[in-house]
Predict the structure.
Amino acid sequence: MEIKKEEQKRILLDILDLFVERCREKGYRYYLFFGTLLGAVREQQMMPWDDDVDVGMPRPDYDAFRKDIEERPLADNIRLFDLDHPFGKRHPFLFAKLGRTDTYIQTKERGADLGLSIDIWPFDGLPDKAEDRELYYKENDEIIQECFNSIYIPDKTDHPFKYFPALIRYQFRMLFQYKKVFRKHLAFVTRFSYDDAKFCGNPINGGPGIRKVAFPKEDLETMPALFEGKYYQIPVGFDEILRANFGDYMMRPPKEYRMPHDYVKISWKKGCEPKVIAGDEGENSSGMELANAGPDAAEKLPDDWKGLVFREDGTKKKVILYYSTFSPFLQNGKKAIDKLKSVLATFKENRDDVVLVWKNCPMFQNFLSKLEPEIWEEFEAINHGFLEEGWGIYDGEGENSAAIALSDAYYGDSSPIIDFFLDDKRPVMIENMEIL
């Protein structure tokens, strides 16, 4: 029986919670990473089109967790898959998958493959000097290519004279060679101690842009962040990490790039009782579904807003949504504060014609107050002054507010809210920190 999208998500989050529970019990360090970290920071939940969960662990904790889980499994239907554990031949890589054994995924390349699982990535120490890291990356790339060659799956569309000899070579490699090559890679990446290194990374990753990023180890210290209604650990250097992996990470990618994995089908194994979870199978909007304001939008506004939005003759002023995220403040510090002051002063000067609706993204205070407390104090003072003066609107109603529907244009930092404006063909302008 096929597993529906919302149920897939719930199963993945259940596995994540069991993993985190064991980490807390044993004191293992972990952090949400890759797309899951992006979802936590930008969306506070899994991205609507995402269908997997990624966590990172320092190598010492990763090895301890693997040994622990072998001796004391999390549940009867949850197993660890990697090079050494049962079903290892179905997961010939140097990271681990913690998966449900009562599910399976039908893939185009491997047929019936591992079931629903979360990916656990070990992070290793790297050389201290940049020039030494460049040599390290070059040798690492060569070994990774050997690894890929050892598990290359022949293309079924090839001519039989080409396909069947390649298939025989593949079977031979899977029986006798691939583990030797992968253990060579493991020995290479574990040469530098995680705890003694100044820089750490994920050199086993198949993505060249990811495996060649060196993170200062202090960036991988952790802090709590809200994700799917609960708090999980994320790296304190999430801003630099996400920028290295995704660029302007607060901006959602174009819709044509919002793609899940290319799975054929995800199903329960025969005889396993399905868990039915009600929910919409379509793409959601990361908790930001916006109710249709309709023609009576003005009636839904608070009275103090109406006095700012409408002139005495009943005509409506232009309403600009100004959206602030933590990222520019983490990146630019005092410069971002000066920019904020300049923006507010400009809108205040033009308040007879334009109404400013100011919103801050979720987790703004949580991140900024912990990572840049002095900048947060300045920001809080500006925010307090804005509220006291009362010439604009501060919208603290979360993402489902009528102010989004009411606004004629968007101005501010990159954010998921932009989708609403682009869908309605309303103007969008991204704030330029270089212009005061």
User: Anything to note?
Assistant: The CA atoms of residues 337 and 379 lie 7 Å apart.
